[in-house]
Design brief:
With 228 residues, this protein is of the alpha/beta class. Helices cover 37% and strands 14% of the residues. The termini are far apart. It folds into two domains: 171 residues, Rossmann fold (3-Layer(aba) Sandwich), CATH 3.40.50; 48 residues, no CATH class. Strand 5, helix 6 and strand 6 form a beta-alpha-beta unit. The structure holds flavin mononucleotide.
């Protein structure tokens, strides 16, 4: 059975961590969860979940102050760790091995043991200091995977956007999923075909079967102003 460490820190986007835990709880994967103090706040502020409910999705939960927990040791075998979402403070801790809480210590151990560390770093805009921290973490071997949505996979809802991010995380650990339409799938090919067939025409009518425009796209595309 695969074991994954999940760290949730206090950036906006607690729902990303929750969705990852939801998905993993349905797979044959043992999750070891640590939630920072700030993330305990964002969970309540941003989602309908409470911390207890989030913890119930994991196989094992740890107190962030418990720097003696098993995930603080390299001898605890696992596939790696995901910090989702990752606030700049936690990113800074990881990039500088400032291991004063369990989440950061577990991430540092993941790096030193040469296991996979995925950092869903969230802030916007980034200043150069943030970018440097991401460079530092990437140089140490971490994968920086900011929550940046893709639109080629035809998201219809906010849920689709969340699932896309979570699917990208799972891809890194080679965990199979069906969370988004991959480029070249039937759905994206059909959208391409509709686009080629209807350039400059009302695409809304030709959208692939089963897909509808999300309200944010509800205005029809502007008419092609060029002479026809
Ligand atoms: C609702 C809310 C949203 C926040 N969003 C972010 C964010 O996107 N990125 C970030 O770096 N900090 C964000 N913060 C601030 C962090 O929570 C704060 O810096 C905290 O000290 C991070 O601690 P941690 O990294 O130990 O979780 C947010 C705080 C709140 C209350």
């Amino acid at each position: 059975m695969k074991r994954l460490i999940i760290g949730m820190s206090g950036a906006t986007g607690a729902i990303y961590g929750i969705r990852l835990l939801e998905v993993l709880s349905k797979l044959d994967i043992e999750t070891h969860l640590v939630i920072s103090e700030a993330a305990q706040k964002t969970i309540g502020m941003e989602t309908p979940w409470n911390v207890k409910q989030v913890k119930s999705l994991a196989h094992t939960c740890y107190d962030n102050r418990n720097i003696g927990a098993n995930i603080a040791s390299g001898s605890f075998l696992n596939e790696g760790m995901v910090v989702i979402p990752c606030a700049i403070k936690t990113l800074s801790g990881i990039a500088n091995s400032y291991n004063d809480n369990l989440l950061v210590r577990a991430a540092d151990v993941t790096i030193k043991e040469k296991r996979k560390l995925v950092i869903v770093a969230r802030e916007t805009p980034f200043h150069k200091g943030h970018l440097r921290l991401m460079m530092q973490a990437a140089d140490l071997g971490a994968t920086i995977l900011p929550p940046v949505p893709a639109f080629y996979c035809l998201p219809q809802t906010i849920d689709d956007i969340i699932n896309h991010l979570v699917g990208k995380v799972l891809d890194i650990f080679h965990i199979e999923h069906n969370l988004f339409h991959r480029w070249g799938s039937y759905e994206t090919e059909s959208a391409m075909a509709a686009q080629e067939k209807n350039e400059g025409v009302d695409m809304a009518k030709e959208w692939p079967e089963g897909l509808s425009y999300h309200p944010i796209y509800s205005d029809p595309p502007p008419k092609d102003p060029r002479p026809q």
